Amino acid sequence: NFSSHHLIGVGGDSKVYKGQLHTGSEVVAIKRAQKEYLQGVEEFRPEIELFSRLHHKNLVNLIGFCTDDGEQMLAYRTFKRPSLG
C-alpha cells in the first residue's frame, strides 16, 4: 500500500515507504522510484548488485527488489535503533 500514510521519506528520485513482508514477520523500508526517474534494467541492475553486497553495522541491508509492471523498488531492513537525528 503506497498511500501517504505509509510514506517515511522523499529523495531526489524516489520515495520511501514503510512496508511489511508477505509473511507479516518483518517491517521493511521500500524505496520506490518515481515514474519520471525510472532507469533501464541495465542501469538498475548494478545498483541492486552493489547494495546486495554491502554489509556494515551502520547501513541497512538490501533484502529484495522488484522491476515488474514499470516499477523499480528496493526493499531494505529497518533499523531497530534510535534515529541518528
From TrEMBL:
Q: Which domain of life is it from?
A: Eukaryota
Q: Which UniProt keywords apply?
A: ATP-binding, Nucleotide-binding
Q: Does the keyword Zinc apply?
A: no
Alphabetical list of Pfam families matching this protein: PK_Tyr_Ser-Thr (PF07714)
Domain Protein kinase, residue spans: 2-85
Any one Gene Ontology MF annotation carried by this entry is:
protein kinase activity
InterPro entries this protein is in? Kinase-like_dom_sf (IPR011009), Prot_kinase_dom (IPR000719), Ser-Thr/Tyr_kinase_cat_dom (IPR001245)
Key word ATP-binding present: yes
Q: Which PANTHER family match?
A: OS01G0750732 PROTEIN, OS05G0423500 PROTEIN
* Full protein name: Protein kinase domain-containing protein
Q: What species is this protein from?
A: Selaginella moellendorffii (Spikemoss)
Upper lineage is: Eukaryota, Viridiplantae, Streptophyta, Embryophyta, Tracheophyta
